Amino acid sequence: MSELPPFKLPILKDQLLLVPVLAKIKLHPPETIDGVRCQVISGAPPPEAVKAFRLFPFSIGVAIRETDHLPARIKFNSGRGLSLRVQLSDVKLTEAWPAAR
Hints:
Layout: H1 13-16, H2 19-22, E1 24-33, E2 36-44, H3 47-53, E3 59-65, E4 71-77, E5 83-87
Antiparallel strand pairs: 1-2, 2-3, 3-4, 4-5
């Protein structure tokens, strides 16, 4: 198993306090994807944030496998007619490739 180096969030800790104002997060009932139980969450900016910050009324969703916490599905809707759904299968972590590859 590889150990990852420390990482930093691309935002400041204080900015995390804005998440409840800028995003409405919803937990959905579990789903089974490719025979694996997944937890499903979605998020979107609330109407007040869309208006106040001139955001697109987008939404995102992700299904996370309970077995290894890797994504099974990612969904995006722009709120302006663009929808994207990516379903991942046989996702796994492996050793890093050699630098020469």
